[in-house]
Design a protein that fits this description.
Blueprint lengths: L2 H26 L2 E2 L5 E2 L1 H11 L6 H8 L3 H13 L3 E6 L2 E9 L1 H25 L4 H27 L1
Antiparallel strand pairs: 1-2, 3-4
Helix pairs in contact: 2-4, 2-5, 3-4
Length: 159
């Protein structure tokens, strides 16, 4: 790799870091999904994951988000206390708790999904600047960075 290539990679990593820091601020800023309650980013993403069927149990959601079961349990318990998530025991297995959105939870989920669609519409405007090939390369790079970060997460969990 030439010095110029190293500079480009360094510049890309710095940009990624700045983007992540901005995203982190957004995630920590409480939002109202039109229900009168305010949610942090972790709560919103948990509602979204349950609503999309990414996990029906704390264990499944823990694997999906790559966080501890304790972290998921805390978020889910808060959402349940707020009336957005219902916890029921699986028939025949008193240890396993099944999670699902309540009516209030489905409303919050739909409102969040509508906000996501607005973001996608904004991204579609940006998309017009790039060819399909350029977008494919960009997605490949993001996938590679995702795998690289996953390796770092796995390494940290192994310590």
């Amino acid at each position: 790799m030439t010095k110029t290539d190293q500079d480009l990679m360094r510049q890309g990593w710095e940009l990624f870091t700045r983007m992540f820091m901005k995203y982190d601020v957004v995630q920590k800023t409480p939002v109202d999904l039109g229900t009168g309650d305010r949610f942090n980013g972790a709560q919103v993403h948990m509602l979204e994951a349950i609503g999309q069927g990414r996990g029906r149990t704390v264990t499944e959601l823990s694997g999906y988000f790559m966080v501890t079961k304790g972290a998921v349990s805390q978020i889910v318990s808060r959402l349940a206390a707020m009336g957005y998530v219902a916890k029921t025991k699986r028939a025949g297995n008193d240890k396993e708790i099944i999670l699902k959105l309540t009516g209030k939870g489905r409303l919050a989920f739909r409102r969040h999904a509508a906000g996501n669609e607005a973001t996608v519409a904004e991204l579609m405007q940006l998309r017009k600047k790039y060819s399909r090939a350029e977008i494919a390369v960009f997605l490949n790079i993001l996938s590679d960075v995702d795998r690289m970060l996953l390796g770092g997460v796995a390494e940290q969990k192994g310590k």
